Amino acid sequence: MEQTDKVKARGDALADLGLDPNAAPDDIRDAWRRIAFHAHPDHTGGDSANFARAKAAYDYLRKEGLTVKGANNRPSQPRRPRLRRRIIELEPEDIANCVAMLDPSRALPSAESHSATDPDAATLAESDHVPDAVGYYGRNLTYFVPTPVCEGANRIALPTSVLSSSRNSETEVLSFQSNDQGAGEVVIPDTICESKFPGAKSVRIRFEADQAIRNEYWLAS
Fold this sequence. Notes:
single chain; alpha/beta; five-stranded mixed beta sheet; about 20% strand; rod-shaped
């Protein structure tokens, strides 16, 4: 029997007992006892139609487990899949594109020949930042940046199309002011998130994100 058929059958059975669809198990048992007494052929001059209909309804609800204390007679709802956190290391090409956006003079045709992970190649200013990984929790993104945020003006280049189905990687440079320095978190405003990060619900940036920070992200509830 299909789920919709079951819901209808339960509703019909409850209606035969004079109950609404939200009746509790105690209500079902009380209704059956009341009808079983008053509609019994011994009290109706031998007419058993109402008794038989009520008994069939009660027997059906009992087989469905809806007469047991604590049972729920509401239609079952499908469970939402549990979201899992995951962290993806950014591709060397994505990192190189970010470096090039912050320092165009370092852009080369091949990302393999000019990887931003090469310490000799990636000599950016202390206030310029490039992430090396991104965390996913549904449509919520967290970029992990190995460098500490600087007090004052900062720039960060981010691959913004990580949730897009497009194969072409897009990179944006965002600027912001910080009153502190070192490790920390920056939350991208919703207006920028909607216009620059297609598909994302929220975007956060974790600075000076070492392995402990990543583990903290994994274990967050």
